[in-house]
Amino acid sequence: MAGGSLAPTGVSKERAQQYQGKVTSYVVISCIVAATGGSIFGYDIGISGGVTSMNGFLEKFFPTVYEKEKNAHENNYCKYNNQGLAAFTSSLYLAGLVASLVASPITRKYGRRGSIICGGMSFIIGATLNASAANLAMLILGRIMLGFGIGFGNQAVPLYLSEMAPFRLRGGLNMMFQLATTLGIFSANMINYGTSKLEPWGWRLSLGLAAAPAVLMTLGGIFVPETPNSLIERGSTEEGRKILEKIRGTNNVEAELQDIIDASELANSIEHPFRNILEKRNRPQLVMAIFMPTFQILTGINSILFYAPVLFKSMGFGANASLYASALTGAVLCSSTVVAIVMVDRWGRRALLIGGGIQMIICQVIVAIILGVKFSTDNELSKSFSVLVVVVICLFVAGFGWSWGPLGWTVPSEIFPLETRSAGQSITVAVNLFFTFVIGQSFLSLLCAFKFGIFLFFAAWITVMTLFVYFFLPETKGVPIEEMIFVWRKHWFWKKIVPGYPNADESNVTQ
Q: Is-cis flag, bond preceding 8, omega within 30?
């Protein structure tokens, strides 16, 4: 139990070597179904950029941008600089930020499945409003409902995956969320490519089809089982045991069950998780919950994914060519995520994050040099340099896809103790969506102001975050989720901050 203390203190020693079980079809199917929640996030990222480059959409809702686009003498970097157009993209993420904080107590009190279902239903409503929008207010309202769906989904799904997965394969199975996200982006890009030929109403089909992954997410939330961690935390210990035995494929689950029970006792003793997460012993997890999603967005990936068609059109690509190029980046992102799924539990989190960071820095600098030397404000890139830019951007996207893309979600979802896990994931999602909103709202203006320097801006941030990982992020590969506290106690920096375990012999914690 809890180390012999009268007050619950959580997991007292490492029992990982005693864990039994295997990867069952039950847990794989549950994780695949739950991970479809990532597809709604990805679909929206991919669909919004393509829709904002469609003439029918611009002419109806943003006529000033439509007129600018047709002006051959307009500054290439500034022709799409419109705060209303940026608000269409970014309003969703501001709503998602609020929703992620609301979702935390719901996820903790009613389970992970409840939040997944709420997210799916909200997204269906938002997709319906967007597809039938008659004016800008209706369009923005639909985006807000989509934001609530993403806030709930992004808060609950990574937690669900981390708690269901066997600890030795948690990284790969957790990345099903990011794989579904990238599949959503790729599907959206391909749909945009097709609906762009259906002017002037093709954009309605693009926005309306967002309901499809949302339906899958809602049905998944209804039919998949609740996690053992959530059931035990809410007092259903016997039911939690049965689910744990089923997903591990063995009746010998005592070690893992005891870890969950110990963690649940501490979780239930905490009345205010958001206040508790500020305590010194939770400092490293809080730092990661803030910095990991912040850095993930400051790679610049969302700017490229949101505005890929707009960005490529600004460089001189035709409308169809720009959509095709953005579809290509979506395909690269999807395939590179598969690499991460295969390698994350072999190479570890740190190696992928550092390697991907170096690759992205090089690509951003190359793009900045090409645009700075060969692309003026009123001329188009030559065909050869246009192709080179697309190739380098694809390499950048690949670097993100096998590193910060999936791991920006995986690491924060697996490092929190049960008592602050829901609150910690809410903070992660809220920070992610806040910076997504900031970048989404400001990117077109930054592109106009910085011109090619925008890529150097993001390269500088990637340098900072790569150094951050090297010095401050410990390796979490192969560590059971309920025993993550021991990782911080052994790290060169965090061990100075995280207190040792009370009434326990530290020499025995590696038993």
A: no
Determine phi and psi for 114, rounding to 5 degrees. -60, -45
**135: helix, coil or strand?**
coil
**For residue 331, what are its two tokens?**
């395909």
Nearest to 178 by CA among 336, 430, 346, 405: 405
| Spatial separation of the C-alpha atoms in residues 40 and 35, rounded to whole Å | 10
Burial of residue 500, with CB atoms counted within 10 A of its CB: 0-12 exposed, 13-18 middle, 19 or more buried: exposed
Residue 508: which residues within 8 A CB-CB, separation 6 or more? Answer: 13
- Return the closest-CA partner of residue 22 out of 210, 182, 250: 250
Phi, psi of 212 (to 5 degrees): -60, -55
Q: What's the token pair of residue 265?
A: 């006792």
Angle between helices 418-450 and 404-415 (to 10 degrees): 150
For residue 171 the two structure tokens come to 């990284």
> Tokens 């937690």 map to which residue?
159
- As given in the structure block, the two tokens for residue 93 are 């993420």
The Cα–Cα gap between 157 and 212 comes to 18
Q: What pLDDT digit, counting tens, does each position of 237-247 carry?
A: 999 999 999 98
Token pair for residue 268? Answer: 């239930």
* Gap between the terminal Cα atoms of the chain: 15
Amino acid of residue 430: A
Residue 493 to residue 1: CA distance in whole angstroms: 29
Q: Is the distance from CB of 483 to CB of 15 less than 8 angstroms?
A: yes
Token pair 């998944």: residue: 220
pLDDT in tens, 266-306: 777 777 777 888 888 889 999 999 999 999 989 988 777 65
Tokens of 402: 């096998």
Q: Contact at 8 Å (CB) between 342 and 172?
A: yes
**Closest to 77 (Cα-Cα) out of 272, 315, 363, 357:** 315
Confidence of residue 142 (pLDDT cuts 50, 70, 90): very high
- C-alpha triplet 289, 293, 294: angle, nearest 5°: 105
- Phi and psi at 183, nearest 5°, equal -65, -35
Of 296, 293, 308, 292, residue with least CA distance to 443: 308
pTM above 0.90, yes or no: no
The letter for the amino acid at 249 is G
DSSP state for residue 132 in the 8-state scheme: T
Do residues 119 and 156 make contact, with C-beta atoms less than 8 angstroms apart? yes
Q: What is the pLDDT of residues 317-358, one digit of tens each?
A: 666 666 677 778 878 888 898 888 888 888 999 999 999 999
Structure tokens at 493: 């920096």
| Whether 48 contacts 88, CB under 8 Å | yes
In angstroms, rounded to a whole number, what is the distance separating the alpha carbons of residues 457 and 198? 37
Instruction: Give me the DSSP letters along 165-220.
Output: S-GGGHHHHHTHHHHHHHHHHHHHHHHHHHHTTSTTTHHHHHHHTTHHHHHHHHHH
Peptide bond into 63 cis (omega under 30): no
Torsion of CA 282, 285, 287, 290, to 10 degrees: -120
